[in-house]
Queue: 2 jobs
Job 1
Amino acid sequence: MSVSGSNPRALPWALVTPALAWTCAFFVLPFIAMGFSSLTGHEGGGFTLANYSQFFTDPSYWRAMVNSLEVTAIVTVISILLAYPFAWILAEMVPERWQRLALMLAVLPFWTSYVVRSYSWLLVLAQNGVINRALTGIGLIGEPLQLANTRFATVTGFVHFFVMLLTLTIFANLKQLSPSYRKAAADLGAGPVRTFLHVVLPLTLPGIMVGAFLTFVLCIGDYITPQILGGNNELVMPQLVMLQIGRRGDFPLASALSIILMAVVTIAYLACARWLKIERA
Amino acid sequence: MRAAVRLAAWLYAIAVYGFIFLPVVVLVLFSLQATSFPIPPFTGPSLRWYQAVLSDARLTSALVNSLMVAVLSSLASVTLGFLSAWGFARFVLPGSALLRGLITLPLTVSYLIIGMGLLVLFNWAGVPKSLLAAGIGHVVINLPLCFAIIYSQMGDHQINIERAGRDLGAAEWKVLLLITVPVMAPAIFAGFFLSMTFSWDEFVISFLLTRFETTLPVEIWNLLRSGLNPKTNAVGSLVFAVSIVLVVFFELTLLRRKPA
Amino acid sequence: MSAPLVDIRNVSHRFGQLPVLKDVSLAIDPGSYTILLGPSGSGKTTLLSILGGFVTPSEGKVFIRGQDCTAVPPAKRPTTTVFQDYALFPHMSVGGNVGFGLRMRGIDGATRAAKARDALALVGLAAAFDKKPHQLSGGQRQRVALARALVIEPAVLLLDEPLGALDLKLRRQMQDELKAIQKRVGTAFVHVTHDQEEAMALADHCVVMNDGRIEDEGPPERVYARPKTRFSATFMGESTILAGTVTEARDGIVMVSTAVGSLSLQGASPAGAPVALAIRPEHLVLGDAKGDVALGAGKVGDVVFQGSFKRVLATSMLDPVLQFIAKAPASATVQAGDTIPVSCNAQDIILLAD
């Protein structure tokens, strides 16, 4: 339905053009620049596929991608498994009037700085940190465990963040569910377990998929957590990218690696695109 | 049996709360450490590390920089996001779905890649690293967010309210100022607030696009090179406190208001 | 009557490929209460949007007070709309809402407040001036929307299913008030509804719409008593419909052959033409024939008690396709399963070209 105005053609474009222009200038154009850059050599010169072939032939680069995917998959699965029951308890067992507070508390550390949060885990997991001191203190272990600078530390830091994020999204999903569904299932003879398996879980699955995708995207692209907690023993893709520009100033290779990383995310996006539509309420 | 399940559930919830709060409690506790290492045993309480933070000119100027970048980039994000959401919600535009997709596309790309792209582009165009460059990057990540939030709240009822305004004789700019903006205020404010917190906390884009003058997360990152240090705990606790104040403020002002 | 206030000439409209209005012409007199009645999808709301200026028709013209307003935006035409969801500005007080149109016309605050108070008093809400819309009930919001639209003294007030969101009792009450307010202010009202009772209660001029066309229009009494088409006979009130064929036409009298026998009626259809005969429920006589036209026996299928009367559904014994819909007194003893004679008076049979 068209809306009449003094200049009905010009107004809508005047509204949407600034945002589109911004996105083109500072998102699309950089991407194109990165694409061109990835096809040149480190020392300048003409067109080359060397940067891409380096990724596909050098096993240490491959390894970074595999590490990234492994860490991301582990983090996503553990986070959902931890967050779903937690969100369920908040939504079902906590009395209605306390729910807001309980949820706010559950995601409070979400608002600490991302860098600081990873650092805090370092305090907990360090050689002489809280956990090792506690364990040696009660005599459970003789020597401190190597917790920091491991994949375990990276995963712990990630899971901490994503449990909060997923609790939020799953909680919202559970609350949106009309109680009538559960009443109807109970009325038709389903016990609590079967009601959950056949009604609640399938209905919240799309929400879980959105959360899982969000986890995937944020996790696979994150540099801070693996750098602070995982250290340099086992590099993931973002660390590899940063290494190219930090130490060696090799923008073309960094560009190529970024594009490969983004291609992986895009494939994941296409795989769950049907659950991720942003629609008007 | 039922009671056992309930007990298990509560224990589980407490355990998850414990996991969530463990690092934060450790962070804040050891920011009050009297000695030079933020590790057990606890030797405080002492405020000496807070004094150290507040007398550190690099940290305080980084804090001011961060606030400035956060406020300005969020204003730009919310303005561009609101105008485009309004345009797409009110008018039928050719290729609308595609263009909306383009605006929200940066949401699916990691900050690292957005920062990399801008770095390559600015490097090629000869734009020097600066807070402005980082601010531009923050608008790239927050514009789609503001757009999505505001666009999702523009329903048919809002359209009718605007029509009523036009019907009663308001010119287009008056409809915008007197009706649309006030009615959409919760969504606009939510977009602004989220942009603020994301920009305030953003590290990798600022890290890539600033050099001498930089933002607080980058400055904290620099502190980490000195290893475990109660000063880092102190500055981290301060940042946390600021965020909590913002969140509580947001919670009390905005979310408590019931829609009409 | 003088020249029409609103003159809609040959208006057609399409949404994309879908035609929603097909060559509609309609005149609206000053001070009249016009009802656009029809089922959803009949085009009535689109016609109202075209009058309000929210939609520009694909073809045709709209004249208001003799001026071509076809493409004039809502702000610049002498109409105001009361929206179905009221569209009150949630961030403004009731007084702010009602004064908005005056504010847009540059009228000073004091005058604005005074006029807004008058308009609120007119709709019986003088006390609500400082309240916010969300503090009001549905019926009160409806009145505020009405006051807001009336205060700028439009030539035509457009109401889009204004009572649709209210419960039945409130709807009937608001209906009476709407009529009273319309008579008091003398503004022409154009009101869209799908509720035929609302239409009959309110309209000076009733326009029955179906499938993008005007099926019938006129005073509601006439539209009810002598509907022009089969659609209007069944949409505006119920009717028993008898299909038949004209066997003989002479001197304004026709003979119609139907499943229940041959009937002689006043009418002008040519011999051989298929026709439909409509009979209103209150005109069907059940039991030992009192009407002058016998319609055969019917087997009662259902009796629905409606309070002041009983609605009786019966199937003709002569033609199982023929369904009698009759209104019996509340005291009637007729029951489902009974077989009873059905009759009516010839003057009550409405002849419709099929």
Job 2
Amino acid sequence: MGNDIILFGLAGVIASGAPIVIAVIGETLTERAGVINLSLNGVILLSAMIGFWVAVETDSLFFGFLAGMVVGALVATIVAFSSITLKQSQVAVGFILAITCRDLAYFLGNPIMGSQGPIMLSTSIPFLKDIPILGRLLFQQSLMTYISIIMIGVAWFWIFKTRPGLMLQGIGEKPAAAYVRGANVQKMRYFYTIVGGALVGLAGPLYTLSVKPGWKGTITGLDGIGWIVLAITIFGGWNPIRAAFGAYLFAFLQWLGLVLQPYMTSIPSQVLQVAPFPLMILALLFVNMGNTEWMERLIASLPDKVRLRAVKILRSMQSRQPGALGTPFERQ
Amino acid sequence: MSSPFLKIKREKMNVEFKNINKHFGPVHANVDINLSIKSGSIFGILGENGAGKSTLMKVLSGFIQPDSGEILLDDKVVTIDSPADAINYGIGMLHQDPLDFPPMRLIENFIVGQKGGLVPSYKSTMKDFEELQKKFGFSLDPEAYVDTLTVGERQQLEILRLLWMGANALILDEPTTGISSLQKEKLFAALKILAEQGKTIIFVSHKLEDVEALCSRVAILRKGILVGEVPAPFDSDELVEMMFGKVITLGERNNLSQEKVVLELKDLYVEQYPLRIENVNFQLRAGEVIGLAGMEGSGQDILLRACVGLIRPISGKVIVKEKDLSHKNYLEYMENGVSFLPASRLEEGLVPGLTLAEHFTIAGDEKKGLFIDKDYFKEKAEKMIDEYHIIGRPDLNVESLSGGNQQRAALSLLKNSLSIILLEHPTRGLDIESAIYMWGKLKERCQQGTSIFFISGDLEEILQYSDRILVFFSGHVSPPMDASTTTLDQLGQLIGGKGWKQVFDTKEKL
């Protein structure tokens, strides 16, 4: 393989990672507020189909993406209403929605199976695109890929550096304490659930209009992405930057599977297609090793100076879930 | 963005309650309360658990709304709909469990809820923070994470935050529960400074000694009714009588220890980051009560948990009744008659969602068949409710019991023929009457030869009930001291790390 091909492939990884990045950021925002939206596997499929359909009908990419976001926001509203207002189990509701939306997507999507739709082309950024390596990697992408990259920074900045972001952390961590500090916990949870849902809904059409163009029913190959997004959100420690790394790692593993296929004929192709999923889990487990008891023991036996440093590094790697994740808030 | 507090605006605020009534279902938690609190003073609100103190304070801090009645601030009627409202009026409440965010850094926790631009300025907040904490002699590291602080430090943080938000009236709900005596001194000093500045301090407690040491005036609540108000100086007996409606005497210490050794620690070495405890050699005799004293996080909880297999020792031995259980788990210890009552009753001790009767079903040794003999356990629960004076019914879920009753329930669940009971803060959060009762029950067990190993932050409790005392200071353990010859002062010095060399000749310890 020449360098060009590798570079080309890696640029593809950035592009095919974009929908995962956006969905992961959406789910991260939702979970940071203390709500688990488990429906996202179904939402990605349903918004992929509807977004594609709308784009075909209107011949507009914009309306396609918008339709996907609306689908995501609507499903998220159901999750929010049942879990925040009715205080029902978020897991049960989300899970049923995940299955329902998936089946709806396959069923309702029959008429447009195999249709030709608009495809988002890449727009190179003048000057920046000529930077060696980086230009090829980052600046000859599609508009949505740029947006996904910018979103990583924006989401990170919002959660960790702004005042509303701190409050968001508080709402998911200890809603009673956030309430005492003047937050309208229920309203903010609605807000972040719906915004997060809309972002997840954006990921769907990003597949059918750009990364994997067209709607091909069950062989579109998007089933399962939502679950991986959920895993990346968790192992990404509810941090957009770490989660983005997870998303790109997954896209990279998928690409690797494709590239290696011709060289490894003895391995069934299904194995290579599925391998990214367990590999992903392993990689993320490795990152979170600092949480384990034996690791603590190992660290305790180190000399003081080394230990303090090690603890600091591990602490920054550790992920800790929002304290009130999945639990409804009651004022009294 | 700096707070009104820093502009040395000495605002005063008088707080007045007028005919406050609050019902919770059939319980009349506040009955027609009339109370007037002047600014610039430390006002105590005293009463046993469930007397209605917290309810009254939650009404003032906007957490709950009264059924009837008014709150007046500086003679003006106000409606306080939420805690955020309350802080806008200048009322801040320090809750018993600090309402802060454990995974955040101090400075972030400090900023959350403060109004201002999109991106808060850490630099100026940091300056405010340092300036503010200097006034009270606190030394908190703003970059540290909240979950690395002790309860006392989290209180300090919260007090600073409330002041920074502009609180003129500060409510403290049982602030001395779970903090060390040194932190208590710091807290009291800070409260005195604030009162001198003209702030209104409302100090809610069931601890007589704290109220006596701090307050200039005390209101006593009993069963939701304001029994009376007393100015300083106080007469303890009078206060107790007002609180309980009767006179209570403390139990006697009686040495019941026998010669038989039930627990032996040999060269024990345990560690839980960042503490290590080395070279512990100790023998616990049957019927003996041992108190573990020390500031929170000095290692006493680690040692206690190592004695029941919840933390495995790195080296050394734990021998229970001549059996080496060093690397066994809790189940093995239980089979050998060792039982552990943790501090967090609802998290580790009882099972929320299960009724009292169901607790007896899963805890006991009897009727271990597949199906539950409901009548049997209902009867047993009733018997225990009677014996342990638990206010509750067999079919009530444990979380609906009050703290004191939960503790009694946890105690009643312990098997009868235990050789060792280990307790963490057995009377934390309990009023005097419940605490005395608790110890009465424990002493009964000592008479039957059970030994007790307990941790307490309350030095008087340790002196009162232990036969021997182990003092902890940042992982160092003292040799056992005879409780009858130890003074409160001595103990206070030792847990602060002073005077170890004079008291103990054992040089390898320090």
